[in-house]
Amino acid sequence: MPPQDVRRARNAALDGLRGIAIGLVVAGHAGSAMWPQLAAGEEGPYGVPVLRGLLGGGAVVVFFVVGGFIVADGLLRERDRGSMDSVRFLLRRLVRLGVQLTLLSAALVAVQILDPTAPGSMKGLTQNLSHVLTYTLNLMPLDLSVPARADVGHLWYLSVQQQCYLVLPLFLLAFGRRRVLGSLVLAVLIGLVYVHRVDVNDEFGWLLATVLTTTRSDGLMWGVLLAMSLPLLGRWRWWSWVLVIAGAGTLACQLAIQELPPLSYLGPWSLVYQFFIGAMVVAIWLQTSPSLVSRALAAAPLTWLGRNSLSIYFWHLPLFFVVARHLGDQPWWVAAGIALVILGLLVVVLERGVEEPTRRLLATHPLFRRSRSPAGGTA
């Protein structure tokens, strides 16, 4: 078992990686929600070549890879100890996400009732929220009778994740002791998902290719594959250098995304980006001591963002749309500043009033409590 300080360092660095990812996600969504004309016209920050890649999206892949890796590693450790409980795992996930989703749904209903500028209808909102709360929002584009709402559209990610987690424990039970075979199966599935995504994009358009589980689960599978491969990867000793190279590759991919043809995030770019993100995750996990890069990732502002990435992800886009409706005549930087201040205050309140009590409940209640993984870390 690694020393406590090593475990803390690796978890802090992974939090920092998620912190960077949520920052990129928020920056990308700010343009589409609050100043779409600015983004479409490539004005302001969107007119700066290369650097506009930081506003270009694609970073949600980080959450798939990191989440898949940490969850799979924890479940594999529980399986090895004979304490893996698939039902408890799913219950913990439902509570972990459901508390905030319920609050978000209530807030959106209140806005729909009280805000005269709120778009759509209450019926349309409740239809969308029913899909959000049942983790089927990503299937809504298959049913054209239900109008999709932009302020909850980002939650497709949770639907893909939760649908994958329904089968992940079963997969690990089947292949936990046959990791080479399981890794080969996952590698084939990753390839099939990519091919299917390209076909769906060509035949049905970018929306279905972006949100379906069958087209976007390859990042999560890549994280699971790496978790299953840890015994083999642990033989390598040069992880500090791997982290440097993978970090540079990840940054290069992100900066290039806006310079590539539209929808490149659905094509080969996605595979390269996943590879570098996965290499960063494994390098952080297997380093025997913190390196310069992992220390930078563990900086306090980044780790705070990473630890609160769930709250930020849930609430940022609905908040942006509200701010845009009421401050749309203000300069873009004024609206952005106000939105970020409100979001930060909201996240602090949620952390103290919602997240901490939820974590205590999951850690102490007999229905949810589990034995702690030696490596620590949750997703």
Strand-helix topology:
Blueprint (H helix, E strand, L loop, with lengths): L3 H31 L1 H5 L19 H22 L4 H29 L7 H12 L22 H20 L3 H26 L1 H6 L1 H4 L1 H11 L1 H4 L5 H18 L11 H19 L5 H6 L2 H8 L1 H19 L4 H33 L15
Sum up the structure in keywords:
mainly alpha, single chain, globular, 379 residues, disordered C terminus, 17 helices
Structure summary:
With 379 residues, the chain is an all-alpha fold. It has one domain (4-364). The chain has 17 helices and no strands.
Question: What does it look like?
Answer:
The chain is an all-alpha fold and 379 residues long. The chain has one domain (4-364). The chain has 17 helices and no strands. α1 runs parallel beside α16 (309-327), α3 packs parallel to α10 and α4 (86-114) runs antiparallel to α6. The longest helix is centred in the C-terminal third of the chain and has 33 residues, at 332-364.
Structural class per helix/strand content?
A: mainly alpha
Which percent bin holds the helix content?
over 70%
- How many distinct folded domains? 1
Rg over C-alpha atoms, rounded to the nearest angstrom? 20 Å
Q: Count the strands?
A: 0
Low-confidence stretches: 373-379
Tell me, briefly, the overall form. globular
The SSE string, one letter per element, is HHHHHHHHHHHHHHHHH
Average pLDDT over all residues: 92
Q: Could you give the distance between the termini?
A: 20 Å
